[in-house]
Amino acid sequence: MGFEHATRASQGARSYQEDAAEVRADADRLMAVLADGMGGHAGGALASGLACKFFVHAFGTSSGEVGARLGEALDLANAAIAHETAENPSLSGMGCTLIGVAFGPDGVEWVSVGDSPLYLVRGGEIVLLNEDHSLAPEIDKLAAAGRISWEAAMADPRRHVLRSALTGTEIEMVDRSRRSLALQPGDVVVLASDGIHTISQTEIARLVSGAATPDAAADALLAAVEAAADAYQDNTTVVVVRVPPAPR
């Protein structure tokens, strides 16, 4: 099948970068992982970098069913953070979100922890594939039930509080694909850190659908985030993976 891909990152309004991402590809398979660090400049950057490094290595050196390999890679990435904090207690509390995605002839499978979104864009439509492990969905449920207003829900400062992350301890919540999701020619999968939430899913779909290449899509996404000019803009990293369109 072959996959085209591009990665872009921006610090936003921050003075440091806590996101990390890696992509490994061969003829018909591709592994992509993205992590968003937490714990300050040193801790967050170290956690996300360690998690990506160990995840990709663990997945690449394992064998068997893809879902099991993704789970093992996640556990080893978490163990790497545990080892680092044990060696250096001053880093206690560091951690990261993580999305690990395996692309192959059968489609795409993933594992994720945290609030970094994984999108599928197909035919101009966008779907969020993974669960959001922040408090945002719980707050939105209150608004949907009429217990608070939508204005209050969207302004709630707790929206970005994580319910699950890789911190070297037991992982509270893990989202896994139930089976391989078949992909079609022209499909685009986007891994992103939560800085992408500055723009809407509708805008993400429009920008990705209108881009001729993954490079163009990644550039357009970060340009739109920058154009929003959020004074508190978080780091934003995107990995854009596309199944080549069918020949005309």
Structure description:
With 248 residues, the protein is α+β, with helices and mostly antiparallel strands. The protein has a single domain, classed as PPM-type phosphatase domain (Phosphatase 2c, domain 1), CATH 3.60.40.10. It is built from 6 helices and 10 strands. The chain has helices at 40-60, 66-87, 136-144, 150-155, 201-209, 214-228; strands at residues 4-10, 19-25, 30-38, 95-104, 107-113, 118-122, 125-128, 175-176, 188-192, 236-242. A 5-stranded antiparallel β-sheet has the order 1-10-9-6-7, with helices on one face. A 5-stranded antiparallel β-sheet has the order 2-3-4-5-8, with helices on one face. α1 packs antiparallel against α2 and α5 (201-209) packs antiparallel against α6 (214-228). The chain is globular. The mean pLDDT is 94.
Structural class: alpha+beta
**Rg from C-alpha positions?**
18 Å
Report the principal-axis shape. globular
Extended strand count: 10
What separation lies between the terminal Cα atoms?
A: 16 Å
Question: How would you name the CATH homologous superfamily?
Answer: PPM-type phosphatase domain
Mean pLDDT: 94
Count of helices?
6
Largest sheet: 5 strands, antiparallel
Key words describing this protein structure:
single chain, 248 residues, alpha+beta, Phosphatase 2c, domain 1, 5-stranded antiparallel sheet, 6 helices, 10 strands, 25% strand, globular
Helices and strands in order:
Blueprint: E1 4-10, E2 19-25, E3 30-38, H1 40-60, H2 66-87, E4 95-104, E5 107-113, E6 118-122, E7 125-128, H3 136-144, H4 150-155, E8 175-176, E9 188-192, H5 201-209, H6 214-228, E10 236-242
Antiparallel strand pairs: 1-10, 2-3, 3-4, 4-5, 5-8, 6-7, 6-9, 9-10
Helix pairs in contact: 1-2, 5-6
